[in-house]
Amino acid sequence: METATKTQITVEALVKAPVEKVWKYWNEPQHIKQWAFASDEWHAPFAENDARTNGKFKTTMAAKDGSMSFDFEGVYSHVEPNKVIEYDIADGRKVKITFTAQGSETKVTETFEAEGTNPIEMQRGGWHAILDNFKKHTEAN
Hints:
Layout: E1 8-15, H1 19-27, H2 29-35, E2 42-49, E3 56-63, E4 69-80, E5 84-89, E6 94-102, E7 105-113, H3 120-140
Antiparallel strand pairs: 1-7, 2-3, 3-4, 4-5, 5-6, 6-7
Helix pairs in contact: 1-2, 2-3
């Protein structure tokens, strides 16, 4: 049994949209493909999502120039519609996302276990960039 405590990283955004819309845009594959990447040089050509406890998800993140791609995938351990998503990434790390309605806006908070290869600030920056893309996509549509 692993006894080391993994570093937790949290990113958050206030999205100018009601929680029902935020939930829909977070979970529907046609929307995931519009925001699940960290920079304009990348895109998400494939996404599938079964947003329920024990459901699976997979999003392909790829460089637009074709030089690199990877699948971000895992299994949901707990899902409460419009409130919380918890999942295990394929590499074993855990993620928790909360959706907090604040009138006509929604606070999205993601907390994830850091991986051991890249610096913490780089990981935080990447996850925050993806969350910012989500916010932009949701507010613009």
